[in-house]
Amino acid sequence: MNKSDLIDAMAAHAGITKAAAKLALESFLENVEGTLKKGGRVSLVGFGSWSVSSRAAREGRNPQTGKTIKIAAKNVVKFKAGAELEGAVNK
């Protein structure tokens, strides 16, 4: 399912227009992104939670040449599925 499929499904399920569903989805995504940018955590009980973790700089290898390369430190987004979502997927 891609973004437009999700918008169509949301509109049909909620009985709203596709424009309203698109606006709702974009608002949700912007709010999650904004919270994560500030270092916060977004938690939807039963569904899952998103958080930001720092990954330290490290050395790696270029698989084509075998040369050692430096990999810069960066922040990464983590998602942990909630119990209800895991249960629904594993039925």
Automatic annotation (TrEMBL):
<comment type="similarity">
    <text>Belongs to the bacterial histone-like protein family.</text>
</comment>
<dbReference type="InterPro" id="IPR010992">
    <property type="entry name" value="IHF-like_DNA-bd_dom_sf"/>
</dbReference>
<protein>
    <submittedName>
        <fullName>HU family DNA-binding protein</fullName>
    </submittedName>
</protein>
<keyword id="KW-0226">DNA condensation</keyword>
<dbReference type="InterPro" id="IPR000119">
    <property type="entry name" value="Hist_DNA-bd"/>
</dbReference>
<dbReference type="GO" id="GO:0003677">
    <property type="term" value="F:DNA binding"/>
</dbReference>
<dbReference type="Pfam" id="PF00216">
    <property type="entry name" value="Bac_DNA_binding"/>
</dbReference>
<keyword id="KW-0238">DNA-binding</keyword>
